[in-house]
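Study this protein:
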Amino acid sequence: MVNEKASQRNRAILEFGVLIQPLRDLRRRSMPPTEADYRLAIAQVRGGDAAWRIHIRDFTTFASDVRFEQEFQDISHVPERLWQAINGLLDGPRLGEDPSTVQAEFVKTLDAAENRFLALLEKVPVSWQSAMFEANTPFTAYIRIREVTTTVRARFHYFDRYLKPAFFELFLEAVPRSVQVRLVTTATGTKAVHALSELVRVEFADYQLVQTDAAHFHDRNLRVDNQIFSLGPGVDRAGMSLTNFGPAENSVQANAQLDRVMNLGTVVHRS
């Protein structure tokens, strides 16, 4: 299940972070930056902007005659609009009088640009196809499943009667800490991951380990935002033997069934 668009989107996110890193460094400062600090950071971002846009062009191009032109324009102009907004803060008289207030507005402006960038990426469709991984291909399976998990923006739900500690390191480690996480398992799974879950729940803003009866579900399912995926063995065992993995039914009814399984369970750990 090689998904070129998913890989390109992940690359675009990574490169966007690299591009605006000089501005992110200013956000972390305990003392308000000077005008020279701001202008140097802007110059550094502008210097890498042209190369970064190439990644966005790749992501928004599906064929020579199929291009998401408006989406390309919107996404690729996020850095430019960001530094223009920051320049607007610098051109006012307040920087010398009240640098802390300017810094606070700068942080809000930067946060808004990052959120807008991610929201605009979602407008470019990423379709998933089913795949069957041959036996003894665990690394290939891992890479393909990670392509799915790294796209998460809002919720990350995993249903596995035999949840294993390896799942946390392989897949949960890369999930943003602001994402809603629900891990649904049985008493067997809870026992296996209990100690690790105690540590993990501290880091996530909205985390739950939910224990339910084995009679309530059988197949393993992964819900990433609004897309449901089905797989044979647990993600930590994918590719060890012949493995099916791909998009499952994604109807309102299907999502309601997964919600029902969670609601039938007992929350063992929460944030």
Summary: The chain has two domains: 4-121, 131-270. Strands lie at 61-63, 66-67, 131-133, 155-159, 180-185, 206-211, 220-224, 227-231, 243-247, 266-270. The two ends are 34 Å apart (CA to CA).
